[in-house]
Prior knowledge:
- The chain is 21% helix and 25% strand.
- By secondary structure, it is an alpha+beta fold.
- The protein has a single domain (2-113), classed as Ubiquitin Conjugating Enzyme (Roll), CATH 3.10.110.
- The chain starts with a helix and ends in an 11-residue tail after the last helix.
Amino acid sequence: MQYGAIKSKHPEFVSTISKGNLIIKGQIRPTERSKIYTFKLKYAVGGAPDVSIITPTLEKNFNGEDIPHTYPKERLCLYYPGYKEFTSSMLISDTVIPWISLWLYHYENWHLTGDWMGGGIHPK
């Protein structure tokens, strides 16, 4: 289901299945003025999507602040797991992929303003 939806909606992404995991690699550009970001998404059915930005390297902002809404190893925090905003019955192509772009949009604005305007709760 997930693999087919990604192949259908995002044929430009490289999608593979390895050891029971769906692995998606692709490029996203949040706005016309944005950088092009290469991401990797790893997903095992029933688990949480694990998303990281491969290039360019994510960096602290001009205030030297750590990147907000990330997990260790700079994996993106796209939603609050406790609220079940993503479940295995939802399509990654309709949820997580747009959320990556939205996260990157807020990341770029955070670099300009010093304020994370994407809202959300980050689990500790």
